[in-house]
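Lab channel / #folding
Pinned by the channel admin:
"Please post every new chain as: sequence first, then the structure tokens as a reply. Keep commentary short and put observations after the output so the thread stays searchable."

First post following the new format, from NK:
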Amino acid sequence: QALTNAIMQFWRDGYHATGTRKLEEETGLTRFSLQTTHGGKKPFFLKALDSYLDLFETHLLPQLQRGTIEDLARWFETRPLPEGLNEQLCFGCFMVNSITEFSRDDAEVNERGERYFTMLRSAFRESLSLCKQSGELPAHFDIDEGAEVLLGLATALNISFKSAAPSARPEAMEMAAANLIRSWRSSDHTEKHT
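Reply from TO:
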């Protein structure tokens, strides 16, 4: 629970703006236990990132690997939430926020950023490959290009959710992403299933 609360705190305010006193309030850990058990603020932050990435990998990526266009489209529209996390975190916002905050100058944050982008890109590729094998995608569909488009859309959603600006409209972006994915469906496959 302390890590979940830390994830939410670091997601809201970032690493640099979160002091140890705020971490004490949000997690229930004392400064002493933060230092002695977790090694201090930075190691605890990295543990929170690792925990977040584990949740992302365990709860969200498997839905991409079912191998249908509809599952892939719905992943952008609706996501079941890991217990205790709110919806805004479920597209990797915490990871993307951290990469942005550290300006790619921190090797330990970069390593976790690479893990995030690698596993998401790989999941998109696998899902699109399965869709192509089943005939849902046309034979000429480029899996690698499609995966990069989906990665870009997921990253844009991160920024949209985090901004919380009324004009960001993440729900409209979710719908547009899902409709784009559905439009990739092979015309042969669409005709057989209508």
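NK: The mean pLDDT is 85.
TO: also worth noting, DSSP finds ten helices and no strands in the chain.
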